[in-house]
């Protein structure tokens, strides 16, 4: 099996050459110092600011089957303020891995993608924490 060569310098794909779909890209870092440098460089290219999670209604989104089917649920978006205006950076509406959860009583019904909720929460927490984590690791001399 030969390796995929699509990712740019500093990244490697764990999938075989010629694979279908997106790369499974991971930072190619031999040591912690190189990993921190790679993460610093990625942060510098990414949209600055505090990233946040919001929901976006997918009115046409169908879920379930038979008597337990429904239409319409909340997808999740990641965004931040850019030049004084909220901008969407990423959205789970095209995600193919979803698990629609429902919560309801007589007066209330909510359906949402639990996978998108968990994954966007992780991305936002990680992005927002990275500057502090990188600085702390460097300050404490955790390099190798
Ligand atoms: Zn690849």
Describe this entry's structure for a reader.
- With 144 residues, the chain is α+β, with helices and mostly antiparallel strands.
- The protein has two domains: 1-30, no CATH class; 52-138, no CATH class.
- It is built from two helices and seven strands.
- The chain has a three-stranded antiparallel sheet. A two-stranded antiparallel sheet has the order 1-2.
- Strand 3 (52-63) and strand 4 form a beta hairpin.
- It is globular, with a radius of gyration of 19 Å.
- The two termini are 30 Å apart.
- Zinc ion (ZN) binds at residues 4, 6, 13, 15, 19, 23.
* Biggest sheet record: 3 strands, antiparallel
Indicate how many domains the architecture comprises.
Answer: 2
What does the overall shape look like?
globular
In whole angstroms, the N-to-C terminal distance is 30 Å
The neighbouring-strand order within the major sheet is 3-4-5
List the uncertain runs. Answer: none
* Distinct compounds present: zinc ion
Multimerization status: single chain
Task: Enumerate how many helices there are, as a single number.
Answer: 2
**Mean pLDDT across residues:** 91
């Amino acid at each position: 099996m030969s390796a995929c060569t699509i990712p740019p310098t500093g990244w490697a794909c764990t999938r075989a050459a010629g694979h279908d779909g997106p790369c499974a890209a991971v930072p190619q870092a031999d040591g912690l110092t190189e990993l921190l440098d790679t993460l610093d460089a990625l942060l510098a290219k990414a949209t600055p600011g505090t990233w946040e999670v919001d929901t976006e209604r997918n009115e046409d989104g169908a879920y379930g089957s038979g008597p337990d089917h429904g239409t319409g649920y909340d997808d999740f978006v990641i965004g931040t303020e850019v030049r004084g205006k909220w901008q969407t950076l990423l959205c789970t509406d095209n995600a193919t891995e979803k698990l629609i959860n429902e919560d309801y009583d007589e007066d209330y019904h909510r359906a949402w993608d639990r996978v998108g909720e968990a994954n966007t929460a992780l991305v936002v927490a990680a992005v927002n924490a990275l500057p502090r984590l990188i600085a702390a690791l460097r300050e404490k001399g955790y390099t190798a």
